Amino acid sequence: MTNSIGELEKDADCIFVIGSNTTENHPVIGMKIKKNVLQNGARLIVADPRRTDLAKIADVYLPHLPGSDVALVNGMMNVIISEGLADLDFIAQHTEGFEEMAALVAGYTPEFVAPITGVPAEDIRKAARLYAESGNSVICYAMGLTQHRTGTDNVKSVCNLAMLTGNIGRPGTGVDPLRGQNNVQGACDMGGLPNVFTAYQAVTNDAAREKFEQAWGVSLPSQNGLVLTEVINKAHHGDIKALYVVGENPMMSDPDLEHVGEALEKIDFVVVQDIFLTETAKYADVVLPSVCFAEKDGTFTNTERRVQRVRKAVSAPGEARVDWEILCEVATRMGYPMNYENSEQIFEEIRTLTPSYAGISYQRIENGGIQWPCPNEEHPGTPYLHKEGNFSRGLGAFTAIDYIAPGELPDEKYPLRLTTGRSLFHYHTGTMTRRASALNEHVPTAELEINPEQANALGIADNDLVNVSTRRGRLEMKAKVTDTIAPGVIFTTFHFTETPANLLTSSEFLDPTAKIPEYKVSAAVVEKI
Amino acid sequence: MITLTINGKEVQTPEGSTILEACQQAGIPVPTLCYDPDLRLAGSCRMCLVEIKGRPLYAASCVAPAENGIIVETESPGIVAARKVILELLSARHNFNCQVCEKNGNCKLQDYCYQYGVKESRFNYGEPTNYPINDPNPFFERDYNKCIMCTRCVRACEDITIARAISVDNRGHHAKIATAFDGNLTDSPCVFCGQCVMVCPTGALTSKVSAGLGRSYEVDKVLTTCSYCGTGCTLELNVKNDRVVGVTSNRTETGSPVNKGALCVKGRFGWDFINSPERLTTPLIKENGEFRKASWDEALDLVAKRLGEIKTEFGADSMAVFTSARVTNEENYIAQKFTRAVLGTNNVDHCARL
Amino acid sequence: MIEEKRIVLRNADLIDPEKIEDYLQAGGYQGLEKARSMSRPDLIAEIKKSNLRGRGGAAFNCGLKWSFVPADAPVSYVVCNFDEGEPGTYKDRIIVQKDPQSLLEGMAICGHAVNSKKGYIYCRGEYPYVVDLLNRAIDQARNKGVLGDFDIEVRMGGGAYVCGEETALIESIEGHRGEPRFKPPFPGVAGLWAQPTVVNNVETFANLPSIVINGAEWFAAIGAPNYPGTKVLTLTGDVANRVSIEVPTTATLREVIYDFGGGIKDGKRFKAVQVGGTSGGFIPESLLDTPIDFDSMRGIGATLGTGAVFVMDETRDIVDITTRIAKFFEHESCGKCNPCREGTFRAHEIMKKVNQGRASVQDIENLTILSQVMEKACLCGLGQAAPAPILTTLKHFYPEYQARLQLN
């Protein structure tokens, strides 16, 4: 997030939520948005194919079709520019590339965009005006925006929108990705990515690499590595011989599970380090028991870049060990001794190599946590980025982005758009929540959400068993007939091992930059059993 | 600043303070039941009554403004008598089964009855309250035989979660906290965040997941960060005998900067996977398609040996590590360091995209 | 013998209440015109000087109440309390039915004084036919343009007694559950939709046109100096003539009951009178020479309240009546504050026990301490006043209780 969670409750005058079912996936952030809207009078725009809880209280609700985000945002920008609502001073002083972008969106009139998105032109106008004219406007998004073959384009589009109206660099403005995992921000910050070390220092950058080589006392590879989806595809070709999985569950979370399973089987040696025998662990040659958050010390970095303490509360079960200890043991046995007394000692090493974390210490975050960048011990942390329009790269870059249709559009055989997501009561691959007694009792199975119009046409009633199929596979589940989902779209969750939704999703269409799969659109067909 | 006299002592308090706040600043304890600094004020329990010299009525100090020159008594005979009557009235509708109550030792009604020596009620007239306890949700129990109608739960639902699932139904003595049409929570807008449980001063609302596992005075509370979504809520793990038995909220600004104690259903009630019998407790090695238990030395040696062999035979880039958005920063750092420095490849990624 | 004096009922039965023309012909809206020629501070000062005190029960100085509305408030409201929920009270209905324009004019005068453009009349839910009349009157006033830029809307209550309490009434207009708010802030500072709001009773508003026309001194000279003017009273119970009257506030209870009420029905003897509605105190014969003005009534532990006069003859059972009253309060308690919610319930249970002859001296002691605490500890007037019938009957009619107690 460029800005802070608290600003969504207090400072934002208008909140544009796109591709985020906030009250289910980030419930506490959802509460803050609701409070601002219902008690402080902030305005709310929601773009989502599902009429989410936030959509129900929105000033403008845009039920756009999955995969039409760029068209929708271009349409809004078209209105803002043509009605003279753009912040020309901000654009002139702090950005570049405006003319090219403006020329492109000139073609995206609301009337042009309406049939692509399924949203009435007048609503696009209303949303554009509300966003541009409310004062401090902020954009919140989540995987509904990013999990597309055009995920990067989608994100750049909303950045365009923010810069176009100067809604960046002040409290209550900004572009706020609501990150899904407790420490996905931290995993990225720490260089758990194939192209960067900590703090996004590129592995291809000689100076950065030399710094790490010196610190670690070894020479380091200079080529970008493979992203997760590429690893799976390469494994499928037999090119990956060893895979070491720390607390991930690709056999539930990755697209096209049949393909993933085949890939895992082809790998010579698979190590899985986890707290449960996950769907992925079953493919392992060696399984190493690790501990959960309650059994270890460390830090997590949340979606607003706040580094907070994790504290050990209880002993590990049986012989289970802390993840870093296990990795250090393997490293040492492979001839590279890695010895740390405790997690704080590791954090101290991180600080020396990670400029944005340099000023953070366990002592400083004992009470409250600090938001990076925090370059030195005197620095209070950074609640919002790009203060006064100062972008890290100098000028903010507009990008002219054309709409590209989803990889798999409905056709005669697969006439519906299947989209996936999470339920309030479960978490991701269900490893934890399916074993949390109350949560699993409350929501024990997946449901297929389908619009009444669609259901009627297919002769499906609420609670009927249905088959949902895509080109990858078929699942049997209960139908939930609800008008909260747009006609032509169906939805299910991917938490349940009995009905693993990613059996249906495709790994074929990846975003060219981020390599993110198109989870949010698969052509599908539903039949009553 | 405002100057007033409380219990014969001159007290200064900032303009706009209530008498209760002035008392708190001066270290004068005043009992409260409906008061909660994070919620809209109600002024309804009347436990915080004080006497202001020259005024015929007692004032609820939580909502009465501190005014210059007023002379306040917080424990005058009249006030003490009034509090006793109020406690006796509440006792007459409260099912005191403290011996099996989850909130024993952490109950304001119990505390104040003890403090004011209310052993029994003079007002046990009429039929005792008897509300059936039958909300079928798996998260928390609603026992309105222990409810004192402070409405903190209603206000938490309205002001923190903004779910508006519950309100007051009926009037007078028959008033009761209920969903619309007094149904089950599952049929209401309730999202089971348990903010109501967090603010309940008695045993009316208690966690079913923690039931029977330990009272507040038996547990240590360890402040940590929730391990579900990326919001970064802080919560307190309640630990008894080296076992997590519940989750409670720390509501301070420093202890809980993101959520100020507010949690969602997963954070508050989704913790018992920690104690699952399915947890992995020893290393496992697959032999002939079956896992068998192994010692750490055996497993680690095998991993080191095989990785070393593959690196030699197929090269570093034939290997990959999936690190995790679930583990700590320190562990992610170690994982990528291991990948780059030990395996010698940049093939490290995690589920940021998934 | 004391005579009726008509200020609020000056047009009663003399004009057609359905015709604004009649009202105008009788000098209607001249008060508003005069008020609008005055500056706001002068108008408020004039009303303050008249010493007009609220006719709803609490007798707060009307002009003083208006002066609490901040002069620079951008939005403020005028609310007429026409909930008239006190059993035995129907004076506001009489005023409205006989002369609705007088109320509208009074509200508009108040609107000018506090710079409000919007008035609400909160009408008792059991008066649907009066709502129709009021709406017709408002339409006529609008069409004639006499209200200027001041508009009035009628809202109907749902029958809850507590909604006669001004803050519960405001909650009800806002669409919430009828529960009183704590005070301060008083409505004058933060009332309807958190804006400054004046809430006055029908009778208070209906006094205003005459006061503005005739001046503060004229009004202040009528009736009791501390509570000048007249009071509309409604006589019910065992009185020969069950009538409504408007008398100067110097009239005594005895004059009201015997001169206007024609004494006790069927030649029976007087036993008690309850003044001011259900929450009023019971008054024995020995105190009947007390004038009805607010302060004199308070001096004998009673209230003038709404001006309901409920007379009981020698055959009436005081304990039974008090038990019924206790039941009424148990039913009407909103349930917000502890002492009222639980206290009214337990008080009724104890009264039932007494009434059934099962109570002991200890029960009476418990009832007394409970009542004393409720008077001082409850959140709003309902709970504070609910014990008055119990405490005054215990005081003046204790032998009737004693006769019921179990001798153990």
How would you explain this protein's 3D organization?
Chain A is 32% helix and 16% strand. Chain A is α/β, with parallel strands linked by helices and 529 residues long. Chain A folds into three domains: 5-178, Dimethylsulfoxide Reductase, domain 2 (3-Layer(aba) Sandwich); 184-375, Rossmann fold; 416-528, Beta Barrel (Barwin-like endoglucanases). In chain A, the strands form five sheets. A six-stranded mixed β-barrel of chain A has the order 14-18-15-17-16-19. In chain A, β2, α4 and β3 (60-62) form a beta-alpha-beta unit. The radius of gyration of chain A is 23 Å and the shape is globular. Chain B is 24% helix and 18% strand. In chain B, the strands form six sheets. A five-stranded mixed β-sheet of chain B has the order 2-1-5-3-4, sandwiched between helices. Chain B starts with a strand and ends in a 5-residue tail after the last strand. The mean pLDDT of chain B is 96. Chain C is globular and about 70 Å long. The model of chain C has no long low-confidence stretch (mean pLDDT 95). The longest helix of chain C is centred in the C-terminal third of the chain and has 18 residues, at 338-355. Chain C has three domains: 20-221, Rossmann fold (3-Layer(aba) Sandwich), CATH 3.40.50.11540; 224-313, Ubiquitin-like (UB roll); 318-402, NADH-ubiquinone oxidoreductase 51kDa subunit, iron-sulphur binding domain (de novo design (two linked rop proteins)). Chain C has a five-stranded mixed β-sheet. Chain C has a four-stranded parallel β-sheet with strand order 3-2-1-4, sandwiched between helices. At the A-B interface, α3, α12, α14, β7 and β8 of A face α4, β10, β11, α6 and β13 of B.
Could you outline the blueprint of secondary structure elements for this entry?
The complex is a heterotrimer of chains A (529), B (354) and C (408).
Chain A: H1 5-10, E1 14-18, H2 22-25, H3 27-39, E2 43-47, H4 53-56, E3 60-62, H5 69-82, H6 88-94, E4 95-96, H7 98-105, H8 110-117, H9 121-133, E5 137-141, H10 143-146, H11 151-164, E6 174-177, H12 184-189, H13 206-216, H14 228-236, E7 242-246, H15 250-253, H16 257-266, E8 269-274, E9 286-289, E10 298-301, E11 306-310, H17 323-333, H18 343-353, E12 370-371, E13 396-397, E14 416-421, H19 437-442, E15 447-450, H20 452-458, E16 465-469, E17 474-481, E18 489-493, E19 522-528
Parallel strand pairs in A: 1-2, 1-5, 2-3, 4-13, 5-6, 7-8, 8-9, 14-18, 15-17
Antiparallel strand pairs in A: 10-11, 11-12, 14-19, 15-18, 16-17, 16-19
Chain B: E1 2-6, E2 9-13, H1 19-25, E3 49-52, E4 59-60, E5 71-73, H2 77-92, H3 108-115, E6 140-142, H4 152-161, E7 167-169, E8 176-178, H5 195-199, E9 205-207, E10 220-225, E11 234-240, E12 243-248, H6 265-269, E13 284-287, E14 290-293, H7 296-314, E15 319-322, H8 329-343, E16 348-349
Parallel strand pairs in B: 1-5, 15-16
Antiparallel strand pairs in B: 1-2, 3-4, 3-5, 6-9, 7-8, 10-11, 11-12, 13-14
Chain C: H1 20-25, H2 30-37, H3 40-50, H4 62-67, E1 77-82, H5 91-98, H6 100-113, E2 118-123, H7 128-144, E3 151-156, H8 166-173, E4 197-201, H9 202-214, H10 216-220, E5 223-224, E6 227-228, E7 230-237, E8 244-248, H11 253-260, E9 270-275, E10 282-284, H12 294-299, E11 308-313, H13 318-332, H14 338-355, H15 361-377, H16 381-385, H17 388-396, H18 398-402
Parallel strand pairs in C: 1-2, 1-4, 2-3, 7-11
Antiparallel strand pairs in C: 5-6, 7-8, 9-10, 9-11
Helix pairs in contact in C: 2-6, 2-9, 5-6, 6-9, 13-14, 14-15
